[in-house]
Amino acid sequence: MNHTNPTPFRFAPLRRASFRLSVTQAGQLPPDDGAEVAIAGRSNVGKSSTLNMLTERRALARVSRTPGRTQAINVFDLDPGQRLIDLPGYGYAKVPEALRRSWGPLLEQYLRRRSSLRALILVMDIRHPYGPHDADLIGFAAGCGRPVHVLLNKADKLSRGAALQEMARLRRMPELQGVAMQLFSAQTGQGLDELHQLIAGWLAPSEQKETPTSAGVNNEPSKGGEDS
């Protein structure tokens, strides 16, 4: 019997990701057309490394030893009409208070008004998941009718059994009922196929959704330390 892994699914537009602009006010965002997926997360959960692994570009999102460096909404173009949105990291005490206060209205306007937003990917560290800021963001996104998909990142730091137990515990929490989640590792690529499939479903026109690619898969860890 052949036990080899099936061909990995890769949503090809992610490999073509290119930085477009950073914005600090909602009015600076690109025209609200096409489709986009946003990635959010507390500082130091590996959000930038997740973006780099997702796009197979080790330096697309800067990985820094100083958490909280993502201080604006960063827009990445994929194929025409498709975007990845990197939302500001939150919860890092050394970020100036005035800057932290400015994120709230910006994120609120973005989540409430952006019609091209298809889903919100929320990155958490599986060893320290679901803090108060995460709860606030999930609650607000739900109130805006935005689907949330939780990535339990750094799953490689736990045994498989321990990681599955932690995910099961989170799924039993009443406030997380109905919130999709998966195990993920931005260092090893665990869960990458599943995430590519989801993003393809959110972003791709229907005629493109069944087109996997496999060449050039690179699961080499990103250089640098913990990121924003």
UniProtKB/TrEMBL annotation:
It comes from the Bacteria. Residues 205-228 are annotated as: Disordered. The keyword ATP-binding does not apply. Pfam families: MMR_HSR1. PROSITE patterns: G_ENGB. Residues 33-205 form the EngB-type G domain. Residues 211-221 have a biased composition (Polar residues). The keyword Cell division applies. Transmembrane segments: none annotated. Keywords: Cell cycle, Cell division, GTP-binding, Magnesium, Metal-binding, Nucleotide-binding, Septation. Its cofactor is Mg(2+). Belongs to the TRAFAC class TrmE-Era-EngA-EngB-Septin-like GTPase superfamily. EngB GTPase family. HAMAP family: GTPase_EngB. Necessary for normal cell division and for the maintenance of normal septation. This is Probable GTP-binding protein EngB. It comes from Acidithiobacillus concretivorus.
